[in-house]
């Protein structure tokens, strides 16, 4: 019988392995020889601590279980979270001082009422913002991730200013709470969207949990720094504002680099427009499109996708008007100048949404209607480049039409 050596590695990590000898019998089965032996690096070696750290803070199966942009994004996200924790501690001290902590003339009731009004403003703000912008947090998560962090820095600045304007202190902390309410909704929702993007083995919960562990570790590190830093800078306005400026700049820069590192493989309106604009030379790859995607500027005119058919047909004639509608089609697409409209029939499927949006963007860019072969070639190019076409973030509304013959 032939003797072989079997090596088993956990997740491809060299620091965790099992090696054992076996014989191959006539039935081509393995028969272990002696006891199974675990061969691993010294418990206090660098590779051991690296493997332990990865187990605690990274999703199981990393890096195969997440997207290629995971580590770069998490690195910049860690830096921005640390910077935000430092400035947040400065703001907390300022708000407590403004609320009367350490002031013998202040009353507990006044501080409580201020805090209740601040919390109430934030609650109302969360509801209104989620209603007004909820659907955009999926499709334009990069933009809203940045907006959330900029608003967070704005809220901290307001908190730092508030103690110096006692006569409007309550209004200022309510305003900062309103900003933070938007931060909470936008930050949490976009984090969920990005976790869904990063999870590649249906392991969304694991990726989310490990992200929470990473954030907690960063906050603990920032806590230790704050315990040392705050007693040294308390009451020294020049140093406080200098620290705020430095860490805010770091916070915004790290957030910008974080969202720029993302390579999202689903189409939103911006990424679709970029793909269509370059489709005659071949569909661009995912990394290139994400690199070209503007974070704030909208490269297209207004788009009314999923609107009523009546709204489309009632549009006044325009010198640059294009309409595509046939009785056997499940959608009606129209472009008036730079404004695009798409109405969907009640039996429209996801491919109809992509095709209708493609027609609008194609005419908007090339000033000529597309053919069926143009769309087929475009769709095949998207699939070849790895774009996920089973998920679209084109922000279609819920209106659907049906046509019935009158009696």
From TrEMBL:
<keyword id="KW-1133">Transmembrane helix</keyword>
<feature type="transmembrane region" description="Helical">
    <location>
        <begin position="239"/>
        <end position="259"/>
    </location>
</feature>
<feature type="domain" description="Root UVB sensitive protein C-terminal">
    <location>
        <begin position="372"/>
        <end position="401"/>
    </location>
</feature>
<dbReference type="InterPro" id="IPR054549">
    <property type="entry name" value="UVB_sens_RUS_dom"/>
</dbReference>
<dbReference type="GO" id="GO:0016020">
    <property type="term" value="C:membrane"/>
</dbReference>
<keyword id="KW-0472">Membrane</keyword>
<protein>
    <submittedName>
        <fullName>RUS family member 1</fullName>
    </submittedName>
</protein>
<feature type="transmembrane region" description="Helical">
    <location>
        <begin position="168"/>
        <end position="194"/>
    </location>
</feature>
<dbReference type="InterPro" id="IPR006968">
    <property type="entry name" value="RUS_fam"/>
</dbReference>
<dbReference type="Pfam" id="PF24160">
    <property type="entry name" value="UVB_sens_C"/>
</dbReference>
<comment type="similarity">
    <text>Belongs to the RUS1 family.</text>
</comment>
<keyword id="KW-0812">Transmembrane</keyword>
<feature type="domain" description="Protein root UVB sensitive/RUS">
    <location>
        <begin position="50"/>
        <end position="278"/>
    </location>
</feature>
<dbReference type="InterPro" id="IPR055412">
    <property type="entry name" value="UVB_sens_C"/>
</dbReference>
<dbReference type="Pfam" id="PF04884">
    <property type="entry name" value="UVB_sens_prot"/>
</dbReference>
């Amino acid at each position: 019988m032939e003797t072989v050596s079997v090596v088993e590695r956990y997740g491809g990590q060299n620091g965790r392995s099992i090696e054992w000898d076996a014989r191959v019998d006539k039935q081509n089965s393995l028969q272990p020889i002696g006891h199974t032996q675990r061969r691993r690096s010294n418990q206090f070696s660098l590779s051991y601590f690296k493997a332990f750290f990865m187990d605690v803070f990274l999703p199981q199966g990393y890096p195969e279980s997440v997207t290629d942009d995971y580590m770069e994004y998490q690195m910049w996200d860690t830096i921005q979270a640390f910077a935000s924790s430092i400035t947040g501690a400065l703001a907390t001290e300022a708000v407590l001082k403004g609320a009367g902590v350490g002031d013998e003339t202040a009353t507990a009731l006044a501080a409580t009422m201020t805090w209740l009004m601040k919390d109430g403003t934030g609650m109302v703000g969360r509801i209104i913002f989620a209603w007004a912008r909820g659907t955009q947090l999926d499709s334009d998560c990069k933009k809203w991730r940045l907006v959330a962090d900029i608003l967070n820095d704005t809220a901290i600045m307001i908190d730092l200013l508030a103690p110096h304007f006692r006569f409007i202190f309550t209004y200022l902390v309510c305003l900062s709470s309103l900003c933070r309410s938007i931060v909470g909704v936008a930050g949490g929702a976009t984090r969920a969207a990005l976790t869904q993007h990063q999870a590649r083995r249906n392991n969304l919960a694991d990726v989310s949990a490990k992200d929470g562990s990473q954030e907690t570790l960063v906050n603990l590190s920032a806590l230790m720094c704050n315990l040392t830093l705050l007693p040294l800078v308390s009451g020294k306005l020049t140093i406080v504002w200098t620290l705020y400026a430095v860490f805010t700049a770091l916070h915004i820069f790290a957030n910008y680099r974080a969202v720029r590192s993302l390579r999202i493989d689903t189409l939103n309106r911006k990424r679709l427009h970029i793909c269509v604009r370059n489709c005659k030379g071949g569909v661009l790859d995912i990394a290139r499109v994400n690199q070209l995607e503007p974070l704030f500027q909208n490269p297209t005119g207004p788009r009314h996708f999923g609107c009523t058919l009546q709204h489309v047909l009632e549009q006044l004639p325009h010198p640059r008007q294009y309409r595509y509608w046939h009785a056997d089609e499940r959608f009606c697409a129209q472009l008036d100048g730079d404004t695009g409209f798409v109405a969907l029939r009640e039996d429209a499927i996801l491919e109809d949404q992509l095709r209708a949006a493609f027609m609008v963007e194609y005419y908007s860019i090339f000033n000529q209607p597309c053919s069926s072969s143009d769309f087929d070639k475009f769709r095949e190019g998207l699939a070849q480049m790895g774009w996920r076409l089973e998920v679209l973030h084109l922000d279609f509304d819920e209106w659907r039409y049906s046509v019935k013959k009158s009696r």
